[in-house]
Amino acid sequence: MMMRCSSRFASLLSSSSQQQQQQQGVFILSSKAGNICCHQKNHYHHYHRQIRRSFADVGGNGTSRRQFSFFTWYSNRLDTHPISTKCISAGLISSFGNTMAQGITFYQDKLEEGRNVSLKECWEEVCIDPAQVGRFAFLNVIFVAPVLHHWYNFINRALPGTSIAMVLKRTFWDEFVFSPIYVPVFLTMLWKLEGTPWPKVKSMIVNEVPGIIVAEWAMWVPTMLVTFRYAPVKFQVLVINVVNVVWQTFLSFMAAKAHGNADQLAEKTNEDVNLYLETMVGQVSIERRRTTKRLLEEAALQETTDRTTTQN
C-alpha cells in the first residue's frame, strides 16, 4: 500500500513539473515574441520620427546636412541677410536669362538669313556680349531685387492673409498698379545704360512697353496668384526669380528687339518725311511754274495791247 502511494505521488510530481516546464516555455516564447514586436514597433516609430524631423528641417532652422543643406543655408541667409541674398540671386538669374536671350536672338537672325543651323551650332557660333549681361545683372542687383523686396514686404503687411480675397487684392495692386510703373522705369534705365538718346528711348517706350506689359500680365498674374497664396513672404522673391529666368530671357529679347524696331520706324519716318517734302517741293515747283507762265502771258498780252495803241 505504501509503495503504491509513493509511486502515485511521484507520478503526480513529475506531471506537475512537466506542466510547469511547458508553461515556462510558453512564457519564454511569448516574452521573446513581445520583445521582438516591441523592438519592431520602436524601430518603426524611430524611422518615422527621423522622416518628420528631416522634413521639418526644410522649413525651419534645422541642420539636415544630407539632402537639404543648400536649402537650409539659403533659408538662413534670407533670415540674416535678406536684401544681399536676394540681390545676388537676382544678379545670377538675370545674367543667365540675358545669355539665353542673346543666343535666341542670334538663332533667330540666322533663320531670317536663310541658314538652317542647329541649336548646338548656334551656341558654338554665338558671341555673347558681356557688357549687355553686365548691364542686366547690374540693374537687377541695385534696382530690381531691393525694390521687389520692399514692395512685397509692404504689400504683404498692408494686405495680410492667404484668403482668396486678399490674394486677388495683392495680385491686382502688384500687376495693374505697380507693374505699369516698374516696367517702363526698368527699361528706361536699361536703355540709358546702353547709351540710347532720349528721343529714341521715348519712342521705344511708346511703341514697345504696352505689348511687354500685356505679356507680363499673361505670365505673372497666374504666378503671383500662386505665390501670394502659398509661398512665405521671405521666399516670394526667390519664387519670382525662378520664374524670372523665363521672363528675363523674354525681356532681354524684347529690349534688344526694340532697338531694331525703333531704327526701322525711324527709317520709315524719314522716308515718309522725305517723300512728303519731295511732294511738297514738287507741288511748289508746279505752282511756281504756273505762276511764272501766267505772268509771262499777261506781260505778252500787255505788250501786244501797247503796240496796238501806239499804231493807232
Describe the fold and architecture.
- This protein has helices at 2-59, 69-80, 82-112, 119-125, 130-158, 164-193, 198-230, 233-311.
- The chain is built from 8 helices and no strands.
- Residues 1-10, 21-41, 43-48 and 50-67 have low confidence and may be disordered.
- The longest helix has 79 residues, at 233-311.
- With 312 residues, it is an all-alpha fold.
- The chain has a domain at 70-270.
Total helical segments: 8
Query: How many β-strands, per DSSP?
Result: 0
Whole-number mean pLDDT: 74
Percent of sequence in beta strands? under 5%
Gap between N and C termini: 204 Å
Order of helices and strands: HHHHHHHH
The chain-level structural class is mainly alpha
- Determine the fraction of residues in helical runs and give it as a percent range: over 70%
Which stretches are poorly predicted, pLDDT < 50 over at least 5 residues? 1-10, 21-41, 43-48, 50-67
For the largest beta-sheet, the strand count, sense and barrel status come to:
none
Shape: elongated
Please give the radius of gyration in angstroms: 43 Å
Notable traits:
mainly alpha; 312 residues; 8 helices; single chain
Quick recap of the structure?
The protein is 89% helix and 0% strand.
Explain the layout of strands and helices.
Elements lengths: L1 H58 L9 H12 L1 H31 L6 H7 L4 H29 L5 H30 L4 H33 L2 H79 L1
